[in-house]
Amino acid sequence: MSANLPAAFADLEQFAHLWIGLETMESRYRARQDMPFDALKQFYDATAPRLADMMAHLDAFGSDTLPSAEARLYRVALGLVEAAQAVEFFAAARLPGAPYPHDVAVGGQAALSD
Amino acid sequence: MTNILSATPEGGFDLGHGMMMPDAAILRDGRVAADSFWSVAQHAAERDAIYRRCWLYMVRAEDLPKPGDYVVRDVEICGVSVLIVRGKDDVLRAFHNVCRHRGMPVADGPCGKAEAFRCPYHSWTFRLDGSLKAIPNQRCFPSLDADDLGLVPIEIDVFAGFVFINLDPQPAFSLRAFLGGIAPLLETTTLVPFTHRDSLSYEVSANWKAGLDPQYEGYHVGTVHALTIREISVTPANPFSEFRKMAFAGPHAAGWSQGNPGWRPRAERLVQSFAVQTMGALAGRVAGEGYPSAETPASLAIFPNFMIHPGAGGWFTQQHWPLTAQSHRWTAHYYYHAPVTASERLAIAQATTFARDSGMEDFMVMARQQKGLASGATESFYYGEAEMLPRHRAAVIRSVLNGAQANMRSAA
Ligand code: FES
Ligand SMILES: [Fe+2]
């Protein structure tokens, strides 16, 4: 899979592989639990200050399908949301004391169709 | 009169066992038997006296917008699988998800769209109104009358878009009577404008009432959520996140929080800041339509297991479904205005992720609490006066179980 990001964010490509294959909140949450905190922090430190720029870039594309480089950038931003939980609140990849690994189902028994 | 909205918890209620008052000793002292959170006998009594009697919230009416839309919801404590489907006549119906041939579930959960329900065992087929449409090789059933073999109906009713079922084939009271004085508060919970929803579900190793408790009080927030929501709720003026107002209506209750109106995300929390700001802009773009107001209860508790709260995007609802005496399933729906931009989608993802993690803080605590209670070390535990909502719920349940037992004795 190509890890190319839009040109303005090419410097973040080194992190893209962490997140671009993860389509669901569940898979991103599991990835966060499996990542060392230092790696999450390094990713956060490089990307969080760019978040507003990343999203301004993506907002210009309207609401439907994003071009593939932009779609990857959005996945990176979703990965940042997950990493930010670890960095901004817990100072740890996993919730202190939580069972490892654990999954919180998206939908699951409560699922609704769209 | 029952189920009147009142500022005090002593009001009467009737859950089909006759008029009752919440247990006076529990209301007075807050002392609750520890085994009410782990005994198998209590679990069975709650099943019969509560879950087989009360109206149980299932789904929003607009979550089943078109004919053929259905959900399957398991009420495990009763061993029942409930199929709710919108018919071709636009009517919502509920059925036992059980084939009339040999008992197979006819619909695969947890949701979907169907023209008809074809049983996966021998292909008996049922219409959306539950009637039996076709029996393959029907001449082998010469004495059966297909008209008598529709899916077994379950009582269903809708209030303000909230769809409830009742597993009692002849409910002792209507949904409206059951809701009583809490109904006006439910009516102000306008979920219709929030067409985007995230749904989560998690199985917790704790009694269902342990699951509800932290949703019923703010006392734990400063401790359990020290890293997450503490700063949104705890202020110097309100160090224990106490409700500023509580109200009770029969078995139901509501609590209004004080909140921290001056709260803003810390500047160094770049992602939370971006998300909160974007969510605020989303609310502004849709002119605040349907959003909770200052008069919105922080917790609206519909007995036995349904809670509604204001959330980051508008509202969220959650339920704690008993599985065993020592486990339950949490389900939650977070309602947001439909996002238009990528930023708005991201802000919603952050809000749900934050809610998931702060929920997990509660789940970790209750699973450990469960072990402590089930160890038998103590005979009782205590709800303080700031924990009046769970205290009231415990008092209601105690009276219901006492009353149901008295009814059984007098019938014997
Ligand atoms: S059990 Fe359903 S068709 Fe036989
Ligand atoms: Fe909590």
TrEMBL record, chain A:
This is Uncharacterized protein.
Automatic annotation (TrEMBL), chain B:
PROSITE patterns: RIESKE. Keywords: 2Fe-2S, Dioxygenase, Iron, Iron-sulfur, Metal-binding, Oxidoreductase. The keyword Glycoprotein does not apply. Pfam families: Rieske, Ring_hydroxyl_A. Residues 56-152 form the Rieske domain. InterPro entries: Rieske_2Fe-2S (IPR017941), Rieske_2Fe-2S_sf (IPR036922), Ring_hydroxy_dOase_asu_C_dom (IPR015879), Rng_hydr_dOase-A (IPR001663). PANTHER family: CHOLINE MONOOXYGENASE, CHLOROPLASTIC. This is Aromatic ring-hydroxylating dioxygenase subunit alpha. It comes from Sphingobium cupriresistens.
